[in-house]
User: Which sequence fits this backbone?
């Protein structure tokens, strides 16, 4: 399992967080994937549980800018800033996501490091 | 276990990576701590095994600059760049470290995300 394949998934993930549907984002995940977002919250196990997380993004106008990306074999850490607009608000969130990949480059686990300090919400 | 206590340990960690002894850095760790540096390598279990990692830094001239820091409860992600000089070489390394803390704010686990791409070595 190569660093290059992991890197491709990370790049595609940040791209789809900005512009993809929930279905497109879920295609990056392995069926047995586990997501903990934010870190310390109840893990979402499997694609149906994970879908809820991205479904809320779908109706929003979004953009995302990658920051630090570190990839080693089937592990990656990526920071990014996502700005979304909808429901009369602009939300800015800047997590560090930690991912592990299977041998097809699909995300096996994702843990998002952020707190309320890394989230701004303002009326527009 | 508070975010504030975790944050204090993270800040102190980056400070000591730049200027501390191995013994000072080890004081930030819980006795049962596990370190995986880089991610995917054999984990170092316990303070004696972890000490080796920091002992090699001691004779070097070092500085470190923190980058992205995300802290939530007893979890943290921190990127930093460390530049060290010694043995006729300058080494620059930029990992993302993922940490979990015990209820005293001591590091229970640290996993360092970096690869050869994030490491530069040049003669001085």
Assistant:
């Amino acid at each position: 399992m190569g660093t290059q394949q992991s890197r491709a998934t990370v790049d595609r993930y940040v791209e789809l967080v900005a512009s993809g549907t929930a279905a497109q984002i879920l295609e990056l995940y392995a069926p047995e994937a586990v997501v903990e977002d934010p870190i310390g919250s109840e893990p979402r196990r499997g694609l149906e549980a994970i879908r809820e997380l991205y479904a809320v993004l779908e109706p929003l106008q979004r953009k995302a800018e990658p920051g630090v990306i570190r990839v080693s074999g089937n592990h990656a850490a990526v920071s990014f800033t996502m700005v979304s607009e909808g429901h009369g608000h602009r939300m800015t969130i800047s997590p560090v996501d930690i991912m592990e990949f299977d041998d097809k480059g699909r995300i096996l686990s994702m843990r998002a490091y952020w707190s309320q300090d890394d989230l701004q919400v303002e009326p527009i």
Notes: The beta strands of chain A are 29-36, 44-45, 61-72, 75-86, 89-93, 96-101, 107-113, 119-123. Chain A has a mean pLDDT of 96.
